[in-house]
Write a structure and sequence with these properties.
CATH superfamily of the largest domain: Response regulator
Pfam family, one: GerE
Protein name: Response regulator transcription factor
CATH topology of the largest domain: Rossmann fold
Strand order of the largest sheet: 1-2-3
Number of helices: 9
Number of domains: 2
Order of helices and strands: HHEHEHEHHHHH
Low-confidence stretches: none
CATH class of the largest domain: Alpha Beta
Oligomer: single chain
Organism: Novosphingobium clariflavum
Largest sheet: 3 strands, parallel
Keywords: DNA-binding, Transcription, Transcription regulation
Mean pLDDT: 85
Number of strands: 3
InterPro entries: CheY-like_superfamily, Sig_transdc_resp-reg_C-effctor, Tscrpt_reg_LuxR_C, WH-like_DNA-bd_sf
Radius of gyration: 20 Å
Amino acid sequence: MRRRAAISHALSSGNIHVEPFENISELSSTWPRSGVILIHDEAGVIDDLIEAMAHHGEWFPIIAFSEDPSANRIVEAILDGAIDYIAWPIGAAELNETLARAIARAETVGNAKLREVMARARVERLTRREREVLGGVASGLSNRLIGEKLSISPRTVEIHRANMLNKLGANHTSDAIRIAIEAALVN
């Protein structure tokens, strides 16, 4: 509570509008239209936040923070989707600078990150087998080769492929491949 008050005061002193939330579910109930999310880094919280953003179809830059974070934890948070990481406690000037940097960085990666979040949300709707078929399709394999690889018939691959396209909202195989690439399933 004290930390949240200090952060709110530091940002407000820089004429930055602040809306503190207790947790991700509280944030989800009053989803903002824009902004940056400053989140206390705890196990799984960034993944949960990104999942909530995918559900709402919006991406906001995330700045994670914690007391005395290890280098490994910072790297893991960035790989999970945070755009920056700060060690608490932090001064008001440094906090405002970090926020400005995050906003500038978000402008360059924001649309790509939103597409990735949305693509991952779509792919998560697929069954394990449909994901395997998507991987085969994205690798350029024919239905016959995908079937051989998965030990199923080419006709079964066709059925999984049709279901996969439908669940992804893809009109063509090329749309499904684009979604797989955006979801970072393939390089």
